[in-house]
Design brief:
Helix content: 40-55%
Number of strands: 4
Order of helices and strands: EEHHHEEHH
Distance between the termini: 56 Å
Structural class: alpha+beta
Radius of gyration: 28 Å
Length: about 150
């Protein structure tokens, strides 16, 4: 469909060959290009199917729709078999990965706070050893989360 000469005015590869551009969606549907290759002539269904297979939609400089997939490259038909429909298992795996990342983030936040409190404690101990003429030294500032909370308020 993309490589056919008679459709280049409606759909073609982008300049880099790492995606395709639908120049005119109305022509794409009305010229019977979409129904020739798919069981429908509905643009939204076409885009939804591309999403199921991991294609990302963007916009080309000419205001046309551009679709990309890391395994959909000009001249690389050998990669096409690696393009798979997203499954519920993939989505649940992604949810699990996201949950794990959120837990890791919360753990890192907690560790950061603990380290800050430890650092503050060490600095206060250090200040207790400073001579009276050095009392002009300032004690440590507030914790990063307290500063953020005050800045947000």
């Amino acid at each position: 469909m993309i490589e056919e000469a008679d459709t280049n005015n409606v759909i073609r590869w982008n300049e880099a060959g790492d995606g395709f551009i639908v120049i005119d969606t109305n022509e794409f549907i009305s010229q019977q290009i979409l129904p020739k290759f798919f069981r429908h002539s509905n643009w939204s269904s076409f885009v939804r199917q591309l999403n199921f297979y991991g294609f990302k939609k963007g916009f080309h400089a000419s205001a046309a729709c551009e679709f990309k997939h890391p395994k959909f490259l000009k001249g690389r038909r050998d990669l096409l078999s690696q393009i798979k429909r997203k499954t519920a298992e993939n989505q649940s795996n992604q949810r699990k990965i996201l949950e794990d990342l959120q837990k890791d983030f919360e753990d890192l936040k907690h560790r950061n706070e603990s380290m800050w409190h430890f650092q503050r404690k060490m600095m206060l101990m250090m200040y207790s050893f400073v001579s009276p003429e050095d009392e002009k030294a300032n004690p440590p500032e507030e914790s990063p989360s307290a500063t953020t909370a005050t800045a947000a308020a």
